Amino acid sequence: MAGNDWINSYLEAILDVGPGLDDAKSSLLLRERGRFSPTRYFVEEVITGFDETDLHRSWVRAQATRSPQERNTRLENMCWRIWNLARQKKQIEGELAQRKAKRRLERERGRKEATADMSEDLSEGEKGDIVSDVSAHGDSNRGRLPRINSVDAMETWASQQKGKKLYIVLISLHGLIRGENMELGRDSDTGGQVKYVVELARALGSMPGVYRVDLLTRQVSSPDVDWSYGEPTEMLTPRNSEDLTDEMGESSGSYIIRIPFGPRDKYILKELLWPHIPEFVDGALNHIIQMSNVLGEQVGSGKPVWPVAIHGHYADAGDSAALLSGALNVPMLFTGHSLGRDKLEQLLKQGRLSREEINLTYKILRRIEAEELSLDASDIVITSTRQEIGQQWRLYDGFDPILERKLRARIKRNVSCYGRFMPRMVIIPPGMEFHHIVPQDGDMDGETEGNEDHPATPDPPIWSEIMRFFTNPRKPMILALARPDPKKNITTLVKAFGECRPLRELANLTLIMGNRDGIDEMSSTNASVLLSVLKLIDKYDLYGVVAYPKHHKQIEVPDIYRLAAKTKGVFINPAFIEPFGLTLIEVLYFVFISGLLFAAAHGLPIVATKNGGPVDIHRVLDNGLLVDPHDQLSIADALLKLVADKQLWARCRQNGLKNIHLFSWPEHCKTYLSRIAGCKPRHPQWQRSNDGEESSESDSPSDSLRDIQDISLNLKFSLDGEKSGAGDNDSTLESEGNATDRRSKLENAVLAWSKGILKDNRKSASAADQNTSTGKFPALRRRKHLFVIAVDCDSSENLLEATKVIFEAVEKERTEGSIGFILSTFMTISEIHAFLVSGGLTPNAFDAFICNSGSDLYYSAINPEDGPFVIDFYYHSHIEYRWGGEGLRKTLLRWASSIMDQKVENEEQIITADEQLSTNYCYAFRAKKAAMVPPVKELRKLLRIQALRCNVIYCQNTARINVIPVLASRSQALRYLYVRWGVDLSRMIVFVGECGDTDYEGLLGGLHKSVILKGVCTSASSNFHASRSYPLLDVMPVDSPNIVHTPEDWSSSDIRNALDKLGLLKG
């Protein structure tokens, strides 16, 4: 409050008085409570609840109060509030400065270390050696489409796509989504993003080469919403269906696919969707696989047509897209729309809520982690403006613009990036529909003549509603469309207009400020702005030159643009565009940016802020002037130039009309598809014969042979644990040269083995029927149910005890073979072998083993004489995306050596690498003192800052650390079994403890059933879960019908009772 410096001295006087004042000097309110205590008054009257937004209103009331005592009381209260605000502001500014400084230091240190690692072989790399890391980066020049720089080149490219049959998957989870009559603005979740994704899906489905587009969202069957949101499928009608006759097919086009997940009868906000994301992923995975097979029969010559890309919109969909991308091994795209870190910074600046309160309301920490994971997994991140990249995405650990440029330069020179990766940021502004817009060619002095195509029509009613305000309606109209919100900066526009006499004489000003019935019925903020505008109109005597109609319809907005163009006017939006702040990017575009684009489409020159999105638009359209929204004179000068200089006005109009097509949906989709084509193609690599339903009671010897011949290319025997999956990390490059020979020998061995099985089958068919070797391989394919033991016990003895109790609970079904078992653990295959031997169990007791926290997958061998385990090669090719390899290992070793116990002599190292437990896809570390190990979120942050993408998992109460590929996990391994072998996820039952490793949450949600064994947990496990990036409770599906708990001291009968509750094993 400039000019009110007396408040500071007043506050100082109050504080100097001390703890008490005599009754004569106390205010009325304080006198009722006894002696005046500034401290108690501050706590009781200020901290307990105040709203800084009504300071001005309080000041007005205080000034209008007649009683001196009451006026002094109000002013005194205001002083305390302002003092508290000032104190809060300084505290917040200090905390913000500390966070920025810490982030800058961490970023610089990580960038320095990454650059040092990559500079070790710079002299060799400069010679042009091609390193394997380059192709793994997915951004090499080989196979990349050249950038398209002209419309002609675009058309040529589009004609080349017509032979393709692309399948694209879009995901947008929250809000209410349907193709027509969208309820935009119904709530905070149903806004511009809904409009954007629907129109994107519709437009992509109309593009050459695109056969099908699926927009996946949540199915809502709630009485609170329209029935249409409960329909499983909705086809999106193309805008221009006449262009699609040669592309149409049985399943072609764009569709909204609604996947049921979460509460079936409730519509819930996005903040409450996090616990149900795994259930959506499983349901979406089921749909995509089915659709890929259907499209394969229609247009893929019998081979599945996998999605060319999965595109997540917003953090929740980005998290889902990352998991689906990993499960299917296909490229991922991401659009943030609104970013969590930026929102958190803005909320903290306001000072109304603490970080804990913000997270409690918005689940902001889970959202930020989802956005970080999206950066880890995305091939491309699509943004709307450069500002979004430079000021929002750079807040994230996983993106550094400087390091990104260095990595890109190394890739262009075919130099190794040592496992480092940055997603490619691509600016593609949202598209608009302009084909229905006819620019206004006439003016107020001469009406346009009608013709056969566009006959003359009477003036729209909104024209007369606006022109009734004007003394001379023929003057050029300065048009502004904005809600009466302080951020829209309308008052500055009115001041600029009112204080510039030449502008007032040359033009009229039209303010379309929403719809209103009465000022008293408006919100206090909007009412305050509108009153300020009316006072300014009266102050500058702008009657007859300013229009401010109370009502207009949405369908009349194009007519308003036409009227402004008819008068040779100008469109202006002087809004304060901070780094988008809390405003959704899509709202910005479909309200603010769309205004600029529609103005250009109607032939209106524009005046806009020089901050944010308008800069990018002006660079392309060149149809107006950019101004500083805080500079009143700059706004007036820009408007006066465009109104007075007819040649400048005509040139801006022509530029806008000529270039506006660059912001159309077809142009957007062409750029979009060209970027997808530049991604390194990925999809499941195996080719498996369809040998019938999984539930068939008998299998012929030929079935087994086909299965074994199939796995001969991706399975190998392991007789001694890690020796098959691990190698000497220091000799990785040398071992690559022998990989082909080893693979050939293994293939020959497995084929020879398969011939032996076939020979045995021919000898004795009746005996083979009773032998597991004649069934489908792996054995889990013929099970009715699969029990996944994923209990993270403190010791192998506890795990063995839990396993035997579970075996005992279903001994009958286990003997019959209707139930199979999978062991899912952090242990290596050697440790598992020792575990089985110590417990008197054989490898055949389990159908599969998910090892090393999900980085390795083994099956029990059909013939024990040939070895206990068989490793799935294809699983490694499925999860190796962005695996850092040797570069990651060096960084981890450097990190481990930096964690020292300084309290003891010689500064003992806390964390050490365990080479015996490490494999090619899992780097294992031991921790001597768990309490001194940095939180898992700190290690993830460190690696992300250095552009290393991986999944860090703390195991055994932080006694062990496994670092595995970013899209590998125990829960993802279960999805792989579904994708690879067709094992139904809903037939899986996962046994877990009350707590577990840091990947614990992924084992609970989803289509599978979960049994939580109470008592299988320690306080230490809970402690290291407390150091996570976000609270575990934010993602726990506590009300899921698929989760049951056992009693504290559970037995085999308790487990059977739990299974009965899940609807299993009844009778």
UniProtKB/TrEMBL annotation:
Residue segments, region Disordered: 97-144, 682-704, 722-742
E.C. code: 2.4.1.14
Biological processes, Gene Ontology terms: sucrose biosynthetic process
Keyword presence, Transferase: yes
UniProt KW keywords: Glycosyltransferase, Transferase
Record has Transferase as a keyword: yes
Name of protein: Sucrose-phosphate synthase
Bias (Basic and acidic residues): 105-115
GO molecular function: sucrose-phosphate synthase activity
Domain Sucrose synthase first GT-B: 167-433
CDD domains: GT4_sucrose_synthase, HAD_SPS
Subunit comment: Homodimer or homotetramer.
Residue ranges constituting the Sucrose phosphatase-like domain according to the UniProt record: 894-1000
Domain Glycosyl transferase family stretches: 472-657
Function: Plays a role in photosynthetic sucrose synthesis by catalyzing the rate-limiting step of sucrose biosynthesis from UDP-glucose and fructose- 6-phosphate. Involved in the regulation of carbon partitioning in the leaves of plants. May regulate the synthesis of sucrose and therefore play a major role as a limiting factor in the export of photoassimilates out of the leaf. Plays a role for sucrose availability that is essential for plant growth and fiber elongation.
Similarity comment: Belongs to the glycosyltransferase 1 family.
